[in-house]
Structures are given as C-alpha cells and as structure tokens.
Specification:
alpha/beta; 2,3-Dihydroxybiphenyl 1,2-Dioxygenase, domain 1; 2 domains; four-stranded mixed sheet; 4 helices; 21% helix; 26% strand; Glyas_Bleomycin-R_OHBP_Dase; VOC domain-containing protein; VOC_core; Glyas_Fos-R_dOase_dom
C-alpha cells in the first residue's frame, strides 16, 4: 500500500493531534495551489497518510461520529507501537487529550486502545500481545494462510521472524 488519503477542515489542528498526541511525523506540507488545497504527508513508521485540507469540510456529514462499521468504506485505521509499555504511554497521552477512554482491549494477537481525533474519526493503536497463543484460534475461524500468525506478528512490528514467502496470489501479480 502506498498511502491512506484523509480529508480535514483544519490541517493545523489535524497535525497538532497526530504529531503531539500520537507521535506521527509530518514530512511535507504542500501549500494551496491551482486545483488543490493545502495538504500534508504524515508518516507513521513506514505507513503514509496524505491529508488534504478542505475548508468547510463537515466530518459529521460524511460518517465521522457514527458507530464502528457504519462509517462507509473506510471505517477506521490502526497504528502500531513497539510494545505494551509504549501502548500504555500513548494511552496516557490520549486520555490527557480527551481522545480516549484509555481502555486497552485484547484483540486476538494484539492489544488495542481506541481514540477519536479532533474531527471525530476513530482509530486505534495496537501492539503485539506476546502471550497470545495461536492455537487458540476457534473452530469456526478459517485459517486461509498457514503463515497468518507470522505475517500478523510482522505487521505488528515483530522483526524477529523472517518475512514469510509470498502467497500464490502475490507471486502471480504483475
């Protein structure tokens, strides 16, 4: 994936929250020009957000603030942190900013804390649960790729495992 594009009515407020509270890094701000408003490139590790400022944008009219899974095609996104200590520190910043209840939940092989940004968009921050037992997969769950747990651990930042070989569909892509 290259990037996720987001829209905000206030690019400065967006940057302040995502930089100061979540710890993301803005690497470029493009001034308004012919045919486009201001925009910023914001990095969360290797993931990139391209944030477009649209004056007068009303997030409530476009699904922000609606319950999870009622927000349209892009419901939420998750960032990762290195471990439980980093998740706890970030949770404390989110609570201090009034952006989270601070509840840390166990979600399969990860821990998660949810937040709402200043425009109401919900996201979450995750880290690997080192105590997760992959044999706890339920009978009704379908393991499509036997390397699922290794891939999930790598996606959550665990670099102690080698990259799994590409799947058949990945090998056949142009």
């Amino acid at each position: 994936m290259s990037h996720i594009a987001l829209v905000t009515a206030d690019l400065d407020r967006f940057r302040s929250f995502y930089e100061d509270v979540l710890g993301l890094e803005t690497t470029l701000v493009v001034g308004a020009g012919r045919g486009h408003a201001r925009q910023a490139v914001v990095h969360a590790g290797d993931a990139m957000l391209q944030v477009f400022e649209v004056p007068g944008y009303d997030p409530g009219a476009h699904g922000s603030g609606a319950p999870m899974f009622e927000r349209g095609r892009l419901d939420h996104f998750g960032f990762r942190v290195a471990d439980e200590a980093a998740l706890g520190a970030l949770r404390d910043r989110l609570v201090a900013a009034g952006a989270s209840s601070g509840d840390i939940r166990r979600l399969g092989p990860m821990f998660s804390v949810r937040f709402h940004d200043p425009e109401g968009f919900e996201g979450e921050v995750n880290c690997l649960d080192p105590a997760y037992d992959p044999s706890s997969v339920r009978e009704q769950d379908e393991i499509v790729d036997p390397a699922w747990y290794r891939r999930t651990r790598r996606a959550l930042g665990d670099r102690s495992l080698p990259t799994p070989p590409p799947t058949t569909s990945e090998r056949n892509r142009p």
